[in-house]
Amino acid sequence: DSLTTPNFNRYCKEGMLFTQFFSSGNRTDKSTPAILNGYPAQPTVSIMKEPKKTQSLNSIIKSLNETGYNSEFWYGGEINFANFHSYVINSGFRKIISEDNFIAVSDISEWGVPDHILFGALRDSMKKVNEPFIKVVLTLSSHEPFDVPMEPVFTGNDEFAKFRNSVYYADKSLGEFLDWAKETDWWKNTLVVLVADHYRRNSVDVLAYSEEIFRIPMLWLGGAVAKQDTVINKLGSQVDIPLTILHQLDLEGDFPFGKDLLSEESGSFAFYVFNEGFV
Q1: Cα distance between residue 45 and residue 274, in whole Å
Q2: Among positive and negative, which fits the CA dihedral 233, 140, 189, 178?
Q3: What pLDDT shows up at residue 222?
Q4: Fewer beta carbons under 10 A from the terminal one: N or C of the chain?
Q5: Whether 40 contacts 273, CB under 8 Å
């Protein structure tokens, strides 16, 4: 809602908002391969934890590396969780920034470096950039235990209030970075894709396979976006991201599970899994 994510809502007027978009899985290690490799999540296992398999996965990073892009992965937490380090290497990232790069930071939370510090370091690194580039940034402050360096905006000590405050903080950190990025020289050539990695189930009364909790936001921003204040209602999921972006660059890629969301010839459908099945 606009009270929890005022910056995201503000930027919706400046980009393309995909309103019927779904997470492929229910955890970060399941959904990230969907976003970057176009590989759907599985109910009970994670391909990210299988290095021999991730070596053979195609990725949007590998495709862009071949055309001269500088690729970086940014994450403020422990890069070895869920075999992430091996995965990002196998996906083709040429530079990796993680919690290990922030040893001088004193207010690291239980989960890692707070989002505003991560975005601050990203901003400093992008005052001068070599184009073309692709940077993937994974935030963490809206993850349990929702420990954020901010006075609460929403009252209450229950878990939902803490979660809501953590999302507000993450949105504030992101908004400040975007406001700065809009004033740079590289913004006019850049596509920014904002997408959640997975849902959060805020009530046991909500069914584990409900569309309500698997539907997530995706917003395209930046000077490279030709149509502002645009809503896309076609059904899609994270596995569609690589092919959709590559086609906008007149590039091809081998992503058999995905479709081009912006093509009139592609269908309107989405697939997702939960621990006991799929929809």
Answers
A1: 11
A2: positive
A3: 97
A4: N
A5: yes
